[in-house]
Every structure is written in structure tokens, then in C-alpha cells.
Amino acid sequence: MTKLKNIKVVVSDLDETLLNPQHRISEYTKSIFQELHNQNHLIVVATGRHHLDAMAIIDTLEVPVYLVSSNGARIHSPEKEELFSFNLDSDVVKAALNVEIDPEITVVLFKENVWQTNRVNERLNAFQAELKYRPELVDYKKLEDFGAIKIFFSCDNHEKLVKLKDAILANSSEHLHHAFSLPTCLEFMDKTIDKAVAIEMVLEKAGFTLDQAISFGDGFNDVQMLSASGKGLIMGNAPASLKETLPHLEVIKTNAEDGVAHYLATKILNKEFVASE
Fold first, then answer.
1. Options 13, 190, 194, 218, the catalytic residue
2. Which prosthetic group or cofactor does it need (predicted)?
3. Range of the structural domain that residue 205 is part of
4. Are residues 155 and 23 in the same domain?
5. For residues 123 and 154, what is the distance between their CA atoms, to the nearest angstrom?
6. Does residue 122 lie within any of the structural domains?
């Protein structure tokens, strides 16, 4: 078991993990990450969000952060230099979408500067405090270029997403793998891409290993990252199914309770936890 004193790298997901229910980083969390930086910890944010969206959030930490975005399809340095990029081929995406899709499901293609979607979804817009990464309404029947960073589906009915997942994998399992970042959010990426692969690329560049990393997550797109880290921690607000999938991992406080900051303050920095107001 990795000793916490050997931890040199802090890795965190954003939504439902580092971010509070208002989709923001609390002032307390910000102060803890600034202290971690002052003590020479490497900080990595690994998210399913698009890099333009995520950059606006991590800038509020006011410390250098490596950013793994779109579940590993993009890596950016603290100076916002693109270190790695991967796009799904247009034919692969087109084949994946060539299935019956329930009209209640929102379809999104992550592009470089916009996200193309079949419908307005105010709940998705609410995840962006400031709209840095804009939606573009499109008719997929008329779209010519399906090339994308990743494919994203959202629906309040989880079972409809499960049915869609099975239909897409029946056609495209050799090219794609999937993850439920939330029960209402289904994502498809290239089979070679996930957060753990991208994080390992970051750490190799920075001179660290995954054994030296502590990671925090709440979704099934975090499974590889949590499993590969020296210490993986599951948020208290994560779905029960994730906790059952990784029963050997510790469950900590929720994102509403500053769970990431609480753990880092008390276990890594050896500080008394002060709840965020």
C-alpha cells in the first residue's frame, strides 16, 4: 500500500469532485491547492470537459495545473501549451450515430472550438459558469464532417442511455469504449484513450510515476485513473454502482463538503480542516 508521505502528485476530476454543487471551486479548496503547490506537489486536473471549458475553471485555482481533458483526448501544460491531442475519425463517429436515438437524448460532438448538438439543453449550459465553449445547433442528417474529440449523450432516463450504449457498441466496439461520467451522461472515446493513459504521459514528462499520485473521482470515466494511482479515492456523492465496482477504495466526504480539500488538508498537509462557508 502506498504511503501517503510518498505522494507527490495530486490528480482530481472536476464535476461532482473538485467542484461544489454550484459548479465552482470553493475558496477553501483554492487555498489548499495553493498550499500544495507551495510544497512542490504536481497538480493535474483530469476531466471529461472540453479544454476551453475546463481552463476557465482551473484558472481560478491560481496555481500551475496540467490539464487532461475530454477524458484523455487532450493534454495541456500549465502554460496552456497543447502537449497531446487525439480526434475520432469522421467515419467512426458517423457509424456510431447511425443507430436509433431516442428523441429525449441530447447528442453532442465535442469539436475544437464549439460543441455541436441536436437540441438546446439548459442543464448542460448550467455546468459552465461562463460560456467559454459554445454550443452550435446542427442537424446530424445534414452534417458532413463528423470528426470529433469525443461523443457525448445526455438524458435524465439512465435506461435509455444504456440501451443506446448497447446499440452503438454492437456496431463500433472495435473502435470505441464508453463511460458514464454521471448516470445521466454517456461518453464515447477512442479505445486507446482514457484519463489514466493521459495522466501517465503527463507524469512521465514531469518525472513522476502513478505510484506517487493520489487521485479523486466520482464517475465511471475515473475508474482507470483511480485504479492506477498509488492512492485512489471515491467521492461520497459518487453512484453506489461505482463504489461497488471499486470496493477496495476508500470513500471520502462529498463535493458539497469540500471532500477533496478535506482529505488533502488532513492527510497530506496535516492541517485541521476548516469547512468552507
1. 13
2. Mg(2+)
3. 4-85+193-268
4. no
5. 10
6. yes
Return d(Cα 254, Cα 263) in angstroms, integer: 11
Q: Is the pLDDT assigned to residue 131 strictly greater than 60? A: no
**pLDDT tens digit string along 147-198?**
999 999 999 999 999 999 999 999 888 999 898 888 899 999 999 999 999 9
Conformational region of residue 49, where left means phi above 0, alpha means psi within -120 to 50, and beta covers everything else: beta
The total number of structural domains that make up the chain: 2
User: What CATH number should be reported for the domain holding residue 217?
Assistant: 3.40.50.1000
Q: Residue 13 catalytic? A: yes
C-alpha cell at 19: 467542484
Interior angle at CA 93, CA 145 and CA 147, nearest 5 = 35
Cell 500500500 -> residue? 1
Please check whether residue 56 lies inside any domain of the structure. yes
Could you tell me where the beta strands, DSSP code E, fall in 97-253?
106-110, 114-117, 134-137, 150-154, 176-182, 185-190, 213-217, 231-234, 250-251
Only one residue has cell 473521482, namely 217
Per-residue pLDDT tens over the stretch 214-250: 999 999 999 999 999 999 999 999 999 999 999 999 9
pTM equals 0.88
